[in-house]
């Protein structure tokens, strides 16, 4: 259904009558539109919009709900933010909620408290559902940029008992000093369009594909992100030394840092932090931020970036130029037995001895418990859970470009037992998840709130098998079996060495 609402001309009579006080400002109808969803879906969509105001405005992070209770005539809630109740003729107030809308940039916008009320009315064959937004302000000048400068917003859903004729409308209660204007009409049009879109989508069986905030609560990560952004973003963007877009990389890595900080807070709960390593760290920004926040760790990449010299002294000391050749496939100095010779030989194809001269090599074995970060590490992404198993270390990997365990580009096979078409990226995520599972990890999936379409984080912090007593040799054998199962590592060393002089990745 194409969204083409009918405007209510100026001077149209109000259809809502507020009875809270005699001096109540009239409610002005602005737009209406037919719809095909029932009152139950209207309520469900409105609840979602109340809880997630960022759907309507990208200047908002979220809403903190401080009150959510049924309405009674003797309502006296024990709440830090008292609700502002509004009553309407012929409507029964059912639910009262109070939310605080949290802006993305607290330096530009301020939080806003708002009472949200849900009403119902059944009269003859008509069923009407009403939702009121009542901001806790007393004048238009107090309204932040992300909220219409009005006293209140009303969403009305009207249907017959058979739901054959169903209608949505939006109404504003204006402040006397701020009457109806084109800007008010634009915001009303937008709010009604979003409500209509979500209601129609839900009624036709739309299933949300992306689920955020599964691993950590939205609020704690966003609060930390806001703090990091206020502390670092301006200087990082102004002093950016790479040729890439500073805003994308700065805000992306600040978001990842915020998630890691809160993840580690939950995992270690005030205990000793074991340190981190960022494999394939690229420009080193994430390492710099985490070190500045007091977390011990380091990062390495096959090639030094010019931005490394611009970070803190601690970051410069802890960013290393190294090529990773996993211990289980090294052709020189490895402790592999005769049965492993084929795997090691294949991995070393195309490598001349002199190519190692002057190039630092890391074997991928880290101190036990070191938290492994693999952020858009490309060639190292499928190796991440294998390295984590060999080091008994938790990890996070954020896949980007698809590479085989050999280091060559390839398209990951689509997951089995699916009846829907799968994108190349979705296939990559499914493939590396399966490698992690076969490496013995319980894989948690989180869609990070960062400015990137490659925002899927796969986290391994719990083992699916009780392997505490498994010795190192047995673990190596198991991981070599995993490498073979997923295509082998033929040519890895040659491809890894090419990164030293090859074209840099964009991160």
From TrEMBL:
Residues 13-29 have a biased composition (Low complexity). It is found in: Cytoplasm. It comes from the Eukaryota. Its EC number is 2.1.1.211. GO terms for biological process: tRNA methylation. It catalyses: uridine(44) in tRNA(Ser) + S-adenosyl-L-methionine = 2'-O-methyluridine(44) in tRNA(Ser) + S-adenosyl-L-homocysteine + H(+). Residues 1-12 have a biased composition (Pro residues). Residues 1-31 are annotated as: Disordered. Keywords: Cytoplasm, Methyltransferase, S-adenosyl-L-methionine, Transferase, tRNA processing. One of its GO terms (cellular component) is cytoplasm. One of its GO terms (molecular function) is tRNA(Ser) (uridine(44)-2'-O-)-methyltransferase activity. InterPro entries: tRNA_uracil_MeTrfase. Adenosyl-L-methionine (AdoMet)-dependent tRNA (uracil-O(2)-)-methyltransferase. Belongs to the TRM44 family. This is tRNA (uracil-O(2)-)-methyltransferase. It comes from Lachnellula cervina. The lineage of its organism: Eukaryota, Fungi, Dikarya, Ascomycota, Pezizomycotina. The gene is trm44.
């Amino acid at each position: 259904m194409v969204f083409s609402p009918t405007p209510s001309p100026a001077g149209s009579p109000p259809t809502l009558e507020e009875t809270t006080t005699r001096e109540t400002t009239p409610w002005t109808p602005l737009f209406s539109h037919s719809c095909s969803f029932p009152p139950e879906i209207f309520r469900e969509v409105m609840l979602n919009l109340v809880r997630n105001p960022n759907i309507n405005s990208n200047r908002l992070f979220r809403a903190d709900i401080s009150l959510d209770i049924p309405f009674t005539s003797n309502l006296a809630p024990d709440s830090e933010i008292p609700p502002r109740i509004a009553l309407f003729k012929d409507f029964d107030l059912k639910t009262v909620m109070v939310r605080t809308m949290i802006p993305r940039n607290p330096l530009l916008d301020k939080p806003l408290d708002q009472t949200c009320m849900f009403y119902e009315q059944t009269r003859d064959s008509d069923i009407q559902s009403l939702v009121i937004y009542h901001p806790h302000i007393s004048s238009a000048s107090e309204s932040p940029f992300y909220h219409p400068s009005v006293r209140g917003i009303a969403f009305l859903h009207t249907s017959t008992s058979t739901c054959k004729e169903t209608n949505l409308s939006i109404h504003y209660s204006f402040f006397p000093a701020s009457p109806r204007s084109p800007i008010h009409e634009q915001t009303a049009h937008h709010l009604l369009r979003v409500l209509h879109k979500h209601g129609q989508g839900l009624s036709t069986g739309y299933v949300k594909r992306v689920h955020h905030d599964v691993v950590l609560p939205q609020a704690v990560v966003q609060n930390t992100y806001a703090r990091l952004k206020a502390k670092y973003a301006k200087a990082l963007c102004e002093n950016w030394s790479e040729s890439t877009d500073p805003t994308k990389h700065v805000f992306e890595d600040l978001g990842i840092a915020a998630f890691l900080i809160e993840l580690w807070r939950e995992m270690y709960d005030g205990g000793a932090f074991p340190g981190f390593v960022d494999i394939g760290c690229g420009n080193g920004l994430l390492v710099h931020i985490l070190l500045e926040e007091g977390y011990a760790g380091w990062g390495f990449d096959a090639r030094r970036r010019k931005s490394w010299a611009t970070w803190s002294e601690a970051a410069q000391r802890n960013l290393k130029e190294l090529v990773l050749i996993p211990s289980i496939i090294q052709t020189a100095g490895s402790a592999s037995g005769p049965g492993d010779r084929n795997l090691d030989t294949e991995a070393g194809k195309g490598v001349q001895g002199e190519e190692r001269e002057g190039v630092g090599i890391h074997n991928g074995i880290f101190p036990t418990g070191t938290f492994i970060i693999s952020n858009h590490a490309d060639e190292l992404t499928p190796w991440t859970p294998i390295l984590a198993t060999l080091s008994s270390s938790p990890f996070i990997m954020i896949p980007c470009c698809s590479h085989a365990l050999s280091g060559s580009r390839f398209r990951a096979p689509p997951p089995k037992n699916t009846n829907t078409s799968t994108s190349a990226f979705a296939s990559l995520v499914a493939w590396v998840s399966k490698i992690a599972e076969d490496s013995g990890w319980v894989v948690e999936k989180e869609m990070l709130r960062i400015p990137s379409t490659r925002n899927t984080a796969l986290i391994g912090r719990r083992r699916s098998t009780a392997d505490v007593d498994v010795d190192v040799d047995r673990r190596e054998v198991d991981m070599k079996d995993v490498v073979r199962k997923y295509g082998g590592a033929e040519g890895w060393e040659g491809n890894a060495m090419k990164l030293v002089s090859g074209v840099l990745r964009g991160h």
